[in-house]
Amino acid sequence: MMPAVDPRLLVGPETLDDAAALKVSDDMAICFTADFITPLVDDPWQWGRIAAANSISDIYAMGAKPMAALNIVCWPNCLPAEWLGKLMEGGASAAADSDCLVVGGHTVDDKEPKYGMAVIGTVHPDRILRNRGARPGDQIYLSKPLGTGIIATAMKAALASQDEVEVATESMMMLNRAASEAAVAAGATALTDVTGFSLAGHLNEMLGGDRDLGASISMDALPLLLGVTRHMGMGMIPGGAYRNRDAYQQRVQMSEGADATLELLLYDPQTSGGLLAAIPNETTAQFEQEIAGRGIKASRIGEFDDSGLIRVS
Description:
Blueprint: E1 9-11, E2 20-25, E3 28-37, H1 44-60, E4 65-75, H2 81-97, E5 101-109, E6 114-123, E7 139-142, H3 148-156, H4 162-173, H5 177-185, E8 190-193, H6 198-207, E9 214-217, H7 228-233, H8 239-248, E10 252-254, E11 275-279, H9 284-293, E12 299-305, E13 310-312
Parallel strand pairs: 4-5, 9-13, 10-13
Antiparallel strand pairs: 1-2, 2-3, 3-6, 4-6, 7-11, 7-12, 8-11, 9-12
């Protein structure tokens, strides 16, 4: 991709941030992104909610507020129109809970159904949160449990229990609004969401090419969806996890005490995953209060350091 050169462009594709940002005035920038996914669950309303939450999350990952969205739909003509209606309703529910207006969209005929949104949001130009900016000593927080790729693989094999499916679905349908607001309030130095490139991949993006910035992660501190370790033991590992490992393992250093059987969890591709936040050590208490006050949880999973590596213990 050729980089765009324009003084109005505050965030472009160079650092693989979650959204682009364009300055429109001294006190406003717009962030914009697009994403769509194939079905992960059987219920069309739930799929719509998950896909919309996944798309809107990129705006929250910039510290911005969603403003408007366009639906992106690929739909086979052999599927019932009422399913499409339920899909749209699910997406609209996520948008409404984000105070985001769905103002239109585009539909094409396709053999495989896909759904998502193109979303724009607003933020002050000086308050954009990017995936770069963390400093040694900043604490690393994750706002949702890991394992959606593993549970989805188990679902396809009809091995996931009803409870496991429900827990994973609720997690994917949850917006990252509260986590974003808490991170902004606590003065986060960097923010991104954990999606298809996995925890290791997105953490690698936060480190960038800076060999003086690294991260120490505790496997015991990682929050997991119900049934993840059981299904990993059964070999329910998505192909994307192996591709992520091939791409990012050169920067990951597993300690002798780390549970090697869970290593692939670091590379599990997530759908509508949580926010990964760098919080200054002096504001961690404030962040945890902000999170608790909004009725959600976030796990402190490690700390940024100067190792240049992702060290896992």
